[in-house]
Each structure stands twice: as structure tokens, then as C-alpha cells.
Design goal:
By secondary structure, the protein is α+β, with helices and mostly antiparallel strands. About 15% of the residues lie in helices and about 10% in strands. It is elongated, with a radius of gyration of 24 Å.
Length: about 120
């Protein structure tokens, strides 16, 4: 991590920040196709914390990151959230032992398959 901070200090040029507080850098100097681009995460480094507009820029899909105003948001689109697996905020379905361990009883509409039971196909 120290190496990345030193490289950022000496060779990095801040391009911008996202809504999560992550900072995006490019290598100082003229812009080229092979320029180095990187992100310094705020908090725990987790790649799923990179929103779509910055993901494209990091992967050289554009010279500049897309402004949020330009992105067309559909009414059904949710705001970007990082992957919460392994955190206290992760989704736990009913019956999960960390969510209380209780689930609804079976409704009785399920019948297990029995290989020895012969059904009449007609």
C-alpha cells in the first residue's frame, strides 16, 4: 500500500472522486492509450465499489469519465451499491442462522420424488 501512495504522490494526477469517496488517478504527462489509471478506495478496497461511470474510464473505454448528468437513468434503475457479501449488511434469507434461524413451515404442496414409485403416464 505504501508503494501505491508513493506512486500516486509522485506520478499521479487526480481526475476526480465518486459518490463513495474513492479517488481516481491517471499518470501525469500526455494522455496516451496505454496510460496508467488507478483508484484509491475510501475504506476497504473492494472493486464492486466502483460505479459504472468510473468503471468505463478505468478500463480505457473513454478519455474522460462520464458525468452523472449525462448518464440516462431509467425509473426502474437502483442506485449503485457495493457487494455487501461478508458484511453485517449482507442479504440473509429467512431461515439463515444469522437471521434468527427460523423459517416458515412447509405448506405441504411439495412431494419428494421416489424412484420406486411408478406413475401411470396415461
Amino acid at each position: 500500500m505504501l508503494w501505491i501512495k508513493l506512486r500516486t504522490w509522485f506520478k499521479g494526477e487526480l481526475v476526480g472522486n465518486d459518490s463513495f469517496g474513492n479517488q481516481y488517478y491517471r499518470e501525469k504527462g500526455k494522455e496516451t492509450i496505454k496510460e496508467r489509471r488507478w483508484v484509491i478506495y475510501k475504506g476497504i478496497p473492494e472493486a464492486s465499489k466502483v460505479p459504472a461511470e468510473w468503471h468505463g474510464w478505468l478500463h480505457h473505454e473513454g478519455e474522460r469519465p462520464l458525468p452523472i448528468e449525462v448518464l440516462k437513468r431509467w425509473p426502474w434503475e437502483k442506485t449503485h451499491i457495493p457487494n455487501l457479501t461478508g458484511t453485517p449488511y449482507a442479504y440473509r434469507p429467512p431461515g439463515h442462522f444469522l437471521a434468527g434461524g427460523k423459517r416458515n413451515s412447509a405448506t405441504g404442496d411439495y412431494v419428494a420424488w421416489n424412484p420406486y414409485e411408478v406413475k401411470d403416464e396415461n
